[in-house]
Amino acid sequence: METLHVYPNKSQQKAVVAFLEALKIPFDTEESLPPHVLKGIQNGQEDIKSGKSIALEEFEKRRRSI
């Protein structure tokens, strides 16, 4: 079995899905996140690795004191 990666635009996607369903070909869909979201996740992970994080309890304590 082979894996095919296709990158249809919105209008093409409906046709591709209909085609695969008509031929009873199993498929998975995968939604990717926008680049700015992926960058934010990466930045957050780097912050955690470098020790720039606090526990939830500490966050709540600081929030209540505002």
TrEMBL record:
Highest taxon listed in the record's lineage: Bacteria
Protein's recorded name: Uncharacterized protein
Species of origin: Dyadobacter luticola
